Amino acid sequence: MKILISNDDGVFAPGILAAKQAVEDLADVTVVAPDENNSSVGRRITLFKHLKVTSCTLGDDSPAYSVSGTPADAVIVGVDYIMDEKPDLVITGINQGVNISCDVTSSGTVCAAFEAVSMGIPAIAVSLFVDPKTAYRQDENGEWYVEYDFELTKRVLHDLVLKIINEGFPEGVDLFNLNVPSNYESQDVKITNLAHRMLEKSVIDNTDMEKRDLFTYPLEEGENGDGMVMISSDLVKEYPEGSDGYALLVDKCPSLTPLSVNMTFKDLKDL
Fold first, then answer.
1. What average pLDDT score do residues 176-182 get?
2. What residue spans of 2-118 are helical by DSSP H?
3. By C-alpha distance, which of 166, 159, 137, 141 is closest to 149?
4. Beta bridge partners of 125
5. 3 state DSSP class of 251
6. pLDDT at 221
7. Distance (Å, rounded) from C-alpha 102 to C-alpha 244?
8. Which region, left, alpha or beta, applies to residue 163 given φ > 0 means left and ψ of -120 to 50 means alpha?
9. Pairing between β-strand 255-259 and β-strand 190-191 as defined by DSSP bridges
10. Pairing of strands 89-96, 123-129
């Protein structure tokens, strides 16, 4: 079996090495990913512009390739240019963050998996939901950093890929969206559906006293009232039972959402 692994956090992000380590005993693995972070770019593709492809090595000294483009670009370049044969499976991640709800259409991780499906390759998008209350640590100098524990995510991903090798994808499923919480209370994987939303978005400027520390530019109004603004977001707090958000935030267990890229509503007969 041949697997292509990509991500949206960049080729040197620790999650992509964790993904490779999770499945390297099951398949011949090739890693191709953006050369820098490309979070929330969706399925953007770089057409008719030069992309730089560079050989590099991961933290375990294994070979990889970086692409000066988006996650979707990296998947296309990996499948159509770097690999000698079309892969049997594409894995995107392990993303350092959460990708749930209908907001996955803005996710570089999930949309890179969508791109693979469009090329006739089944895919798995994988994310580690890091609880900010438990994951932040301070070093000896008092500087804050995030401690990523990929062990459960690696085990769940390994078991999922092994099941796919033995049984294939379920009929009608194009890709799986896997999210694993860092603060898990159960290791049992729940099959879920997409919640309606993941993020509450708002537009702010430096007159918003509660969030002005996020805004790093002064508000400068021109003749037409134009000025600098920023889109900010907060994670939705409540999710319906059975959804991916409910599994992560309430049940605190891994969420596996089967997806189809065909978004056609098939039951409408007349308008």
1. 96
2. 14-23, 71-77, 108-118
3. 137
4. 92, 177
5. helix
6. 64
7. 10
8. alpha
9. parallel
10. parallel
* CA–CA dist 157, 159 (Å, integer): 5
- What pLDDT is recorded for position 270? 82
**pLDDT (tens digit per residue) in 21-45:** 999 999 999 999 999 999 999 999 9
Per-residue pLDDT at 162 exceeds 80: yes
- pLDDT, residue 222, reads 60
Count of Cβ atoms closer than 10 Å to residue 144 Cβ: 8
Long-range contacts, 132-139 (Cβ 8 Å, 24+): 133/183, 134/182, 134/183, 135/182, 135/183
Average pLDDT over residues 225-243: 85
Q: Quick one: average pLDDT of 228-250? A: 90
Domains of the chain: 2-192+238-259 (3.40.1210.10), 199-235 (no CATH)
Residue 215 Ramachandran class (φ > 0 left, ψ -120 to 50 alpha, else beta): beta
Segments in 87-242 forming alpha helices (H): 108-118, 132-135, 151-167
pLDDT band, residue 142 (cuts 50/70/90): confident
pLDDT confidence tier of residue 86, bands split at 50, 70 and 90: very high
**Which two three-digit tokens encode residue 158?**
């390994």
Neighbours of 249 (CB within 10 A): 22
